[in-house]
């Protein structure tokens, strides 16, 4: 849970009078309790617990990553998924479903250790009862192997033509005729296709949720009864009380290692890496500009792959913006042995300006490319009519 939205499952919806939901005693939420007071157990103890503590019948475990940098979120997700996958292969835990929200950030087209673990789940997990549910609003940015492994698709409204195209080409039983269906779905409506609906897509209206809608800053404790809050505290004490001091400290050290501030040398390496990526972005934008120009001139330049290049560039920009923000914050705080950030240093400011410039440039050429693509589609349609 990247944004701390799902702790609201503990609270009944307004239609039911708010207060405790029927699921409240089946949910354990890990979070940074300094930032997210509504959690049950501090996330620093996440790796102190066994896989069997996290996966059990009638239990929903939420890992609230709100407030953590994208880099730390990715490390936590990768390590936790590997732990659960290994436990499933040795039958130490019962069959379960793992929900990975905003999955394109953890399992995009750039290969990482976390992406490899998600692929392992998608390809092999079902053999051992380790089922994964991928949630994303940007299916085109997902790793292609993971996308291909999806058995059932639940498609909600998508507006981006590339996301719609990728969904139609990847999901079983969808065709180009469903483009307008997908873009026209209202809130609470979806199309179910694939293994769960063989042969024909099902148009589904999802019922109103029984729990309150959450969001950043939502604190379920503000809605729960005092008795429930006391019971949740007792449960926390029982869980952590069943672990030895060594187990608790070992888990905390794993988490603290992920949170460890970087040295000045590591920051300089990050900056150097950012500069290399900026250069790559400049080159890609330049190539994209040339392709758009050729299409506008009517030259026979293949467009296959250009769509994905645009989206990969957008993803890269978002990732590097996150990294820039993190580096800047650490530098301003002077954490580790990093020299405190000053306006005079200029290096990070210059890098940020370059990112802004490249983002604007990419947006400009993406717009031109979209126009060229529409023109090409119209031309093909006219040619087909003449051919008939």
Automatic annotation (TrEMBL):
Q: Does Coiled coil appear among the keywords?
A: yes
Q: Coiled-coil intervals in this record?
A: 264-386
Report keywords, A-Z: Coiled coil
Q: Does the entry feature the keyword Secreted, yes or no?
A: no
InterPro entries assigned to the protein according to its UniProt record, in alphabetical order: HerA-like, P-loop_NTPase
Protein's name according to its UniProt entry: Helicase HerA-like C-terminal domain-containing protein
Highest lineage ranks of the organism? unclassified sequences, metagenomes, ecological metagenomes
């Amino acid at each position: 849970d990247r944004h701390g939205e799902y702790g609201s499952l503990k609270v009944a919806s307004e239609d039911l009078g708010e207060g405790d939901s029927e699921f409240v005693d089946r949910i354990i939420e890990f979070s940074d309790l300094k930032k997210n007071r509504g959690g049950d157990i501090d996330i620093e103890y996440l790796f102190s617990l066994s896989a069997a503590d996290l996966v059990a019948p009638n239990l929903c475990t939420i890992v609230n990553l709100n407030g953590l940098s994208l880099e730390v979120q990715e490390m936590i997700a990768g390590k936790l998924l590997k732990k659960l996958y290994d436990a499933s292969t040795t039958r130490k835990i019962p069959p379960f479903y793992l929900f990975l929200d905003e999955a394109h950030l953890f399992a995009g087209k750039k290969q990482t250790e976390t992406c490899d673990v998600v692929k392992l789940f998608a390809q092999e997990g079902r053999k051992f009862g380790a089922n994964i549910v991928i949630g994303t609003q940007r299916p085109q940015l997902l790793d292609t192997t993971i996308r291909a492994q999806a058995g059932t698709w639940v498609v909600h409204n998508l507006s981006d033509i590339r996301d719609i195209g990728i969904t139609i080409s990847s999901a079983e039983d969808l065709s180009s005729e469903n483009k307008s269906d997908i873009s026209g779905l209202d809130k609470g409506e979806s199309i179910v296709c694939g293994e769960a609906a063989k042969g024909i897509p099902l148009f589904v209206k999802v019922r109103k949720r029984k729990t309150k809608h959450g969001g950043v800053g939502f604190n379920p404790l503000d809605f729960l009864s005092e008795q429930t809050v006391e019971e949740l505290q007792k449960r926390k004490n029982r869980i952590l009380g069943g672990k030895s001091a060594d187990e608790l400290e070992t888990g905390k050290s794993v988490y603290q290692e992920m949170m460890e501030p970087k040295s000045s040398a590591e920051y300089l390496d990050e900056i150097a890496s950012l500069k290399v990526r900026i250069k790559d972005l400049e080159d890609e934008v330049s190539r994209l500009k040339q392709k758009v120009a050729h299409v506008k001139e009517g030259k026979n330049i293949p467009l296959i792959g250009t769509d994905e290049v645009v989206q990969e560039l957008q993803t890269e920009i978002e990732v590097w913006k996150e990294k820039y923000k993190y580096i800047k914050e650490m530098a301003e705080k002077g954490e580790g042995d990093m020299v405190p950030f000053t306006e005079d240093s200029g290096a990070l400011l210059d890098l940020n300006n370059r990112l802004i410039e490249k983002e604007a440039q990419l947006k400009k050429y993406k717009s031109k490319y979209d126009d060229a693509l529409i023109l090409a589609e119209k031309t093909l349609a006219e040619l087909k009519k003449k051919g008939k």
